[in-house]
Amino acid sequence: MKGRLLESKAVAPLCALVLGAIAGVVDAHAQTVDVLFFVRRGEILLSSVWSSTFAVPDLQAGPVQVGLLAGAAKVGRLLGASEGLALSIAVRAGVIVLLAFVTGLVLADRRPRTRLTWQLIVIVAALATGMVHRTYVDGHPAQVLIPLLWIAAGFYARRGRAVSTGLLLGLSAGLETWGMLGLPLIFLSRNRRDAARALVAQLALVAVLYLPFVLAGDFRMFEYSWPVVAGSPASLVLSVGSPFTWWMRVVQGAAAVGAGTGVALLLRRSAAAAWVVPLVVVVVRLAFEPTVNDWYLIGLETAALVGAADLFSGRLAALRSSAIRARQ
User: Fold this and answer.
1) Model confidence over 246-270: pLDDT tens digits?
2) How many domains would you assign to the chain?
3) Distance CA 324, CA 137 (A)
4) Looking at the domain assignment, is residue 32 inside a domain?
5) What's CA 73's distance to the chain center, in Å?
6) SS3 of 100, please?
7) Which of 86-90, 221-225, 275-279 tops mean pLDDT?
């Protein structure tokens, strides 16, 4: 019975769900700003005037993120919970469950006991370091979810599941548009045909998620510009206070995609590429960032945490094998 429990891939996500829910209840009164803004826009998305969701340039979150947050708040109200409590639980539990699941994918070739142990270590680390707390308080759960979806996409790409790869990448772009930067993960596919199928699936889902708003509503997302902040990487070449436009975001994205593609082609035979490529893309994206926001670093921490679990578990497994051979 104990052995079957350890072999179950649902144990770690269930533990994550419980711990995330507890954390959400304990810290339900934490103040958050952007989450509430996303909820208000999500309520428009779920209404009869959905086409006006992106009528304000300030909204830089995608329809998936605002829809999920608004849905969580609505479910909470139906259950008699406060909006803050419902959102706190939903964000924390959702983030940490996906973290546990994706860590399990990366460690799929480890022994069940080893995999479960490292999944639990990652869960505890995410809670203890405050990463999960900041994800809610800073108000951008996509900063964690997007890298995790990318890592999962890389895992499935290496196993020939092209459609799943593309849909995960498209879903990440539905959270926030920079999710499109996960494109290099398709180059981990087994062959060109799988890569092409993944690309088609990704672009098709992105079109389904965004085109209705472009065609039927007042879509103003791309009118927004970010002021270049002192101390940001972009301030090294641009004047502080000058606008960082969406065209500049395209250049930033091209640099990140280019770097990620190079790493993907270089490491395509390595299982670690599934998390190395997302890590590289996030690092390069941050290297061109015009603002200084704490939540941007959460994506970096997420990919690094999963990568650390892969590296350390693999190293310990190698040491254990060496010790066994030495005794023989």
Assistant:
1) 999 999 999 999 999 999 999 988 9
2) 1
3) 47
4) yes
5) 21
6) helix
7) 275-279
